[in-house]
């Protein structure tokens, strides 16, 4: 399929990106292009102007500030996957294949807001945040407030997601379990878990993120509430609550019930890995 005609700009500064977006109402940012180009080829998106971020140096690089890890929006999945960033790397390493990981970006996958993608639920579970820049400056949005609906995030018209921040979560173990038919596929369901144990071996803190269990990424709060302050022996019992309150989208791969079953099984596995 051939996309509709469009103009193309590759500015080398954020100011120029913001200017182009503000002057062209239906312009679209292109980062890795691995979600946008298929949509354009199907003519589900037909922007009049593509603003390419690849030359904007301010959007690249990973930095550390105290207990925070900060990824520029144009950080490619490959760099995240191979960077020893704990749970974030574990999840990024499962994205598609090497070609997709070489092009796809952390900013693009979060701004796209596909609940089947791997990194959105990680942002939620790790309680990270994103920085968004628009004509009136920067604003920081917590992961919990960022995903508004299916393919809809807090990035507004004329705005750009510039960076993604995760707390380092020292002292937390992690587990990531993704179920798909083929290695390069999106998750039918995936579960991310973070566990911090107290000195006596009990669970001091626990976070569980659910991928593809609704129109947005979710936290399995019933599991978390059932486990906080408890022994790790309770993991199997608590994992049975993983699908509580979820409305997973049924598709050709899995019914709602099967997805709920997967959520329970994967939650148990991810929690056991995280509590080693
Ligand atoms: C065959 C295939 C398999 C895949 N499998 C997986 C998988 O298993 N797991 C997974 O998580 N993903 C998967 N993906 C998606 C991949 O991770 C993409 O990289 C990701 O969805 C989008 O990132 P991108 O940089 O390519 O964004 P683009 O396609 O360039 O952009 C996507 C959307 O986000 C907007 N956007 C991009 N960057 C910004 C920004 N900085 N600020 C504001 N808006 C922005 C664009 O305007 C567009 O609307 C797969 C893709 C393909 C082609």
SS content category: alpha+beta
Proportion of helical residues: 25-40%
* Shape, per Cα inertia axes: globular
- Adjacency order of strands in the biggest sheet: 4-5-10-6-7
Query: What is the number of helices?
Result: 11
User: β content, as a range?
Assistant: 25-35%
Q: Give the distinct bound molecules.
A: flavin-adenine dinucleotide
* Terminus-to-terminus distance: 49 Å
- Taking all Cα atoms into account, the compactness measure Rg is 19 Å
Unreliable stretches (pLDDT < 50, length at least 5) are none
H/E element sequence: EHEHEEEHHHHHEEHEEEEEEEHHH
Number of strands: 14
- Largest sheet, if any? 5 strands, antiparallel
**pLDDT averaged over residues:** 97
Word description of this protein:
With 276 residues, this protein is of the alpha+beta class. Helix content is 30%, strand content 26%. It has 11 helices and 14 strands. A 5-stranded antiparallel sheet has the order 4-5-10-6-7. A 4-stranded antiparallel sheet has the order 11-12-13-14, sandwiched between helices. The protein has a 3-stranded parallel sheet with strand order 1-3-2, covered by helices on one side. The model has no long low-confidence stretch (mean pLDDT 97). Bound molecules: flavin-adenine dinucleotide (FAD). Flavin-adenine dinucleotide binds at residues 28-36, 73, 77, 95-96, 100, 104-105, 107-109, 111-112, 117-118, 155, 160-161, 184, 186.
